[in-house]
Write a structure and sequence with these properties.
Elements (H helix, E strand, L loop, with lengths): L2 E6 L9 E6 L8 H10 L2 H9 L7 E5 L9 E6 L10 H19 L3 E4 L11 H13 L7 E6 L2 H12 L1
Parallel strand pairs: 1-6, 2-4, 2-5, 5-6
Antiparallel strand pairs: 3-4
Helix pairs in contact: 3-4, 4-5
Bound molecules: adenosine-5-diphosphoribose.
Adenosine-5-diphosphoribose binds next to strand 2 and helix 1.
């Protein structure tokens, strides 16, 4: 069973084998956390993303981590659902993002992974519900990953993830 930990900070500074970015379907970079990860990993990340994309919402794809410092070896790009009110399978797509990232982390032999709060920024997914989906999905997924970090970028996101973990 993986240990799930909530931290507040920048995902590009996490010392895990894999970091997850909240991408768009092109995998060529964007704003928000995707912008930060692409800036930290360097220009090769967008080229690698373009070579394997597009990525469907709910799915995930891995590339090398390029200029990100060790121990980070891979970036897993996942595409969250755009929030459209909750009646368009957004919850199922978001859960799929977390599940697929763990599946790929297992394929890569990763033992630690850091997730941002997928879809809760530009894509508008309500953060409290997204936190509960993230924790419930990760806790119910079997994986060889031993350490899962949920990285909150601000205090509110941190509090919501801690509350979700305590449910
Ligand atoms: N480290 C950790 N978390 C971060 C960072 C960072 N450096 N920067 C932003 N975040 C947080 C945001 O505060 C938000 O809680 O990541 C969460 C996800 O927000 P977005 O990055 O906007 O991702 P998302 O809502 O999934 O929208 C994806 O935005 O940037 C574009 O190309 C991307 O089209 C895609 C869309």
């Amino acid at each position: 069973m993986a240990v799930i930990e909530v931290v507040q900070g920048d995902i590009t500074l996490q010392e895990t084998d894999v970091i997850v970015t909240a991408a768009n379907e092109s995998l060529m970079g964007g704003g928000g956390v995707d912008g930060a990860v692409h800036r930290a990993a360097g220009r090769r990340l967008a080229d690698a993303g373009a070579a394997i994309g597009p990525c469907e919402p709910g799915d995930a794809m891995a590339t090398p981590a390029f200029d990100l410092d060790p121990p980070v070896q891979y970036v897993i790009h996942t595409v969250g659902p755009v929030w459209e009110g909750g009646d368009h399978a957004e919850a199922e797509v978001l859960a799929s993002c977390y599940r697929r990232c763990l599946e790929i982390a297992d394929e890569l032999g990763a033992r630690s992974i850091a997730f941002p709060a997928i879809a809760t920024g530009v894509y508008g997914f309500p953060a409290e519900k997204a936190s509960q989906i993230a924790v419930a999905t990760l806790m119910s997924s079997s994986t060889r990953v031993e350490q899962i970090k949920l990285v909150a970028y601000d205090q509110r996101a941190y509090d919501l993830l801690v509350a979700a973990l305590a449910l």
